[in-house]
Amino acid sequence: MIHNHQTAPTRFVEANSIRFAYRRFGKSGGVPLVFNMHFTGTMDPWDPLVTDGLAATREVILFNNAGSSSSSGEVPTTAEGMAADAAARSIT
Length: 92
Fold this sequence. Notes:
The chain is of the alpha+beta class. It has one domain (11-88). 20% of the residues lie in helices and 24% in strands. The chain has two helices and four strands. Strands 1-2-4-3 form a four-stranded mixed beta sheet, with helices on one face. Strand 3 (33-35), helix 1 (48-55) and strand 4 form a beta-alpha-beta unit. It is globular, with a radius of gyration of 13 Å.
């Protein structure tokens, strides 16, 4: 089944003892587009017109950063901390 912004199930992956919530959809293959929200933002506010439009030609990954919504851990205090958490995840 091919999912879109509205139908992609929320999944979880663990990295560095943090359980990250994410949704993955769109055209698989190639390098996916990873949508990183601000410090305490969640994956829910992204506009489906934008994400589905991009997902027509690329795979899209939305995720909740550490400490946000359904992800565990502590919210990073810097952009570098957010990037390190994002890089630690291995979503397959």
